[in-house]
Amino acid sequence: MVWPLAAVLAIPLMAGSMSASAAEATPPLTVEGFSYPGAAQILAEQHVTLKSGDGNIQLADCTSTDNLIEVFSRTFDTGSVKVCFKVTGPTGYLALELPKVYSVKGDDHTVKATLNTGGSVSSVDIKKNLYTPVGEGTSTDGTTLLELNATDGPAAAAVTTDTPAVGSLVIGQPGRAGSRACTATLVDRIWALTSAGCFTDTPATLAAGAPATKSTVTIGGKTVDIVELVPRTDRDLVMARLAGPVDGITPAKLATTAPATGESLRVPGFGRTATQWRPVNPHTTTHTTGAITATGIDSSPATGAAPICAGDAGAPLLRDQNGTVEIAGVASRSWLGGCLGTPAAETRTGAASTRVDNLGQWVGDTVLRSVTRGDANGDGRSDAIMAYHHANGSIAFMTSLTDTNGAFSEYTSGYVVPPASWDWDSIKFINGDFNGDHRADLAMMYRFGDGSIKMFTGLADATGHIQPFTSSYGVPANANWDWNAIQLYAGDANGDGRSDAIMAYHHTNGSIAFMTSLTDTNGAFGEYTSGYVVPPASWDWNAIRFISGDFNGDHRSDLAMMYRFGDGSIKMFTGLADTTGHIQPFTSSYGVPANANWDWNAIQLYAGDANGDGRSDAIMAYRHTNGSIAFMTSFTDANGAFGEYTSGYTVPADSWDWNAIRFISGDFNGDHRADLAMMYRFGDGSIKMFTGLADATGHIQPFTSSYSVPANANWDWNAIRLP
């Protein structure tokens, strides 16, 4: 005799059986641990030990339907018994112990059974819809069925939901040791919000960085790996960065005001219900809020509504605010009363969730900080992307990826432009994430022979290699743009998560216009539109060094300028971007007096968030007259103003050839502080990569070497650009 899962769990438990949580002051985390629901009762009633599974292979009534997996066992001395299982998905896994099996009949799936016969574990392929003899006669102890693995079933039906940004999160292989499952919500193309308790039983101790176990999120039918966790320390919450974007789904918005006591909130999740173990579609319940604290929300099911169950951890608590759906909280804990597998003695249904309405700044900072300058493969570390002009006229785009120490690897090739296709001297490259997928791309402004100019974008693939370029905005020849009057920079000017092109253009009348070309989700550029224009004869075009970055921390890229006055004094200026992405009038800050005698030709200037405070700073390499090279940092304040340049590492006199260096800035070790990297050419023609990491104070430390190119590789120093 066998009973289906729901029927078994409808039977009252034996006297004295009680959830451990019933005696606890805090309800348990609502994380799905994949233990088989009601296993103790099934063992007592049917002598079958069901341990864990992915929810897709469940005990079934042998008379209820066709297409079952049928297992025959001599568990009872009186004769054989048939135990049946239903596979409810395209694949399924179940760990169990069913002794003395002697035959298994397959269903329409490809089924593999793992067996233990006399201490020897083996796997047997079960014939589809036929009986396969197993075990009998090979051991006096009989054969114990340990696992059922089903594959190659019909494709699962598409998820149907009115909350498409809500998806399922899985840690490990479902049903195997250590595996867990939760719910998560997309809050950016590449970020999901969920419970930190999904990843650990002690949410406050969750470590930032890559998850310890392979973890995935499935949203909108797309399954994506989680590559980085950014947890809160004051509440059960974590931001999970995805390996690639989930497009076609509108990310959910966070509420900006706290829920009120007695407010009704919807909770869509992929957790258990009263009768389902692993639902294919999210189910939605309604909860009424109780006590509200600075970090938490207590709630209970509305009349007739369901509790929050195992697997619902991370589910959003949604409110409708003036026609917009907002996340007010994230599910964390529940008493689980009425959920599948919860003992009948547990009748409490209250839940504790995490507030998020007061975390908008944190979520925004997390999303924007993850856009690492030059991060070609989206792993959170900047890389080096090189354009190399071969002697035959072809141009190769090569990437050197970095490791957690900021060391560079071998340059490997992506797209190669065929010989004689592009004029090397008619290209201005910029490096940025132009389509918002958190991988650094290359863009190019190209001048054709007739004087027309066009923008092109070469997107990076998942391996960090640049792919063929596609064209977008073009300027006709009769616009008469002066190629030598253009300086081009990249940065997210309007704060939409995509890098744009910011151009400084020097008109013939001496005025300087700052124009922005915004990008779309394909990385295509729009028309250049003007922001601030410097009046004629105000600035000396040859006395300017521009850098781009978010200097005031508002998630929009600005332009900063080091300007040399006629008397030799030098001053820093900042032109902030407005909400439309256009540069506004520049304001001055730190200045160096003329008697400091700074040599204008001894300065190389770079931008990056050197101290990790969320604002870009200026990093300067300065070559002293004795041949030493000092690395100095000027930090910015909340207004984008620059402070005094203070020194980090200084290269001893005559150690490096100033003309044999190409610097790039970026976060090469992934610690959220901008470093400097250097490609250096030695006297014998060999070339080596070096990294100078920034310390906690934002100052560059001594450089360490990594990848090198031998002299006999014959790399042409003048054929290299590191955008």
Automatic annotation (TrEMBL):
InterPro entries attached to this UniProt entry: Integrin_alpha_N (IPR028994), Peptidase_S1_PA (IPR009003), Peptidase_S1_PA_chymotrypsin (IPR043504), Trypsin_dom (IPR001254)
Biological process, per Gene Ontology: proteolysis
One MF term in the entry's GO annotations: serine-type endopeptidase activity
UniProt keyword DNA damage present: no
Residue ranges, compositional bias (Low complexity): 283-297
Region (Disordered): 272-298
SMART domains according to UniProt: Tryp_SPc
Keywords: Signal
Domain (Peptidase S1) ranges: 139-368
Pfam families the UniProt entry points to: Trypsin (PF00089)
Identification of the protein by name: Peptidase S1 domain-containing protein
Organism listed in the record: Kitasatospora gansuensis
